[in-house]
C-alpha cells in the first residue's frame, strides 16, 4: 500500500536536510538559494519515517521531483507526486504547467500527458495543460515575405538601442517579428513594455510586435534571465530556449534570421548570444548588430533605470525615443516608488 | 452551456483518469493519452462525450490522461470536471447523475 502525500516544510532545518540528502542520493545537486528560495510548495511521501518521494512547485514550474522506487511498483509514487502538484496548482487557477528534467525522465512525464518542447544533452523541458505552444503560435499571424527576421527583447524600457536593432532588421528583411518578453519581473510591467515597444515602432510598417508568451525568455523557460545564476545553469537554460525558438517559433512562422545586439554589459545576455549562435544555424541565421552608442557608452536600458532611480533625467532624451521619454516623465514618481519598494534595477 | 473556467478532476494514478476541461470553439475536442487507446480509445471518448452532451456542453477542449480507468470512473471524473468548469459544484445535475 502506497503512503500518503504530505506537505514538507523546507523552512524547518531538519526537514530541509532530509529532503536535500534524499535528492542528492538521486543525483540532484543544485541547491543554490536562487533555486530553493523560489519554491512555493513541497510535498513528499514517507515509507515509515523514511522519505521516498518528493516534488515542488515554483510558479507554474515543477521542480525537484525525486522518487525512490524500492519496494514499490515502478511509477506509483511518481504519479502520486505529480498528481498532487498539478491538483495544488489547479486550486490556484494554474493549469498550464512546465517541468525541467533530465533527458532520461522525459518519457516518464510524457506518460502523464506532458509534451516535450525541447531536449538537450543536459535537460528537457516539457509542458502540459489547457494551452500548448501550438495554441500560442496560432495567435501569431504569418508575416509575408521571403526573409523574415525575429528579435526577442525585454525592453525594460524601450531605448534608441532597441529601435536601432529593429530598424536594421527592418531594412534588411522583408518583415520583422518583435517578441516582447512576457514575464512580469522587471521595473516596467509587461503591459508597459509592450506598449512602449509598439509606440516606439509604430512608423515601421513591416514590423509586428507580439508577446513572447511562455516560450521566449520567460520565467518558465529561462529563469536565470531574472535571477543571478551560475554560468552552467544559464547555458543549460538558453540551449533549451534557443531550441524552442528554432524548432517551433522560427519553423512555424518561417523566420530566417534572428537579430541580437552585441552585449558588452550583461554576462547573462552575452552567454545567451553565444548559445544562439551555436544552436540556431543553419536553419536560422544569427546576426549580431553592434550596439549603438551615445555619449561614448553603449545605449543600455539599465542606464535609463539608473537615471530614474537617481532622479536625474537630464540626458534621458539621448537614450530613449520620445514615446518612452514621455512615459517616464509622466510616471516618474510611480516608477521610483517601485524601486523604493525593492524592485531591482541592476539585473535585466 | 459555456465553460466558465478551466477545471481539473481525477488523478494520474493506476485505474484512474485525469480530465481537464477548457474553453473551446470547435465542438468537443478530445486529446486522449492512454496506453490502451488502440483498443479502448473510442469507448473512452464516447463516455466523455456522452457526459459532456448531457451537460449541454457543445464547445470544449478536453485533455484526458488515462491510466486504465473503468467507464464508471471516467464518467465520475468527467462529471466532476464539468461541474467545476461550469461553476455549478453546489448544484448537483441530477438528470446527468
Features:
heterodimer, A: 348 residues, alpha/beta, Aminopeptidase, Rossmann fold, B: 97 residues, alpha+beta, Ribosomal Protein S5, domain 2, 25% strand, globular
What does this structure look like?
Chain A: This is [Citrate [pro-3S]-lyase] ligase. Chain A: Acetylation of prosthetic group (2-(5''-phosphoribosyl)-3'-dephosphocoenzyme-A) of the gamma subunit of citrate lyase. Chain A: Its EC number is 6.2.1.22. Chain A: Residues 148-328 form the Citrate lyase ligase C-terminal domain. The complex is a heterodimer of chains A (348) and B (97). Chain A has 348 residues and is α/β, with parallel strands linked by helices. Chain A is 39% helix and 21% strand. Chain A has a seven-stranded mixed β-sheet, sandwiched between helices. A five-stranded parallel β-sheet of chain A has the order 10-9-8-11-12, sandwiched between helices. In chain A, helix 8 crosses helix 9. Chain B has a four-stranded mixed β-sheet with strand order 1-2-4-3, with helices on one face. Chain B starts with 6 loop residues before the first strand and ends in an 11-residue tail after the last helix. In chain B, helix 1 (37-54) packs across helix 2 (71-86). Chain B contains two helices and four strands. The chains are: A alpha/beta (348), B alpha+beta (97). Chain A binds chain B through residues 73, 76, 79-80, 82-83, 86-87, 90, 93, 95, 112-113, 128-131, and chain B through 5-8, 11-14, 18, 20, 22, 33, 61, 63, 65, 67.
Query: Which architecture name of the largest domain in chain A does CATH use?
Result: 3-Layer(aba) Sandwich
Helix content of chain B: 25-40%
Q: Class by helix and strand content of chain B?
A: alpha+beta
What is the 3D form of chain A?
globular
Measure the end-to-end span of chain B.
17 Å
The proportion of residues in beta strands of chain B is 15-25%
What is the mean predicted local confidence, pLDDT of chain A? 93
Structural domain tally of chain B: 1
Number of domains of chain A: 2
**Would you tell me which CATH topology of the largest domain in chain A applies?**
Rossmann fold
The DSSP helix count of chain B reads: 2
Helical element count of chain A? 13
Strand arrangement, major sheet of chain A: 1-2-3-4-5-7-6
CATH class of the largest domain in chain A: Alpha Beta
Q: How many strand elements of chain A?
A: 14
**Largest interface: chains, residues each:** A-B, 17 and 16 residues
Sequence of strands across the biggest β-sheet of chain B: 1-2-4-3
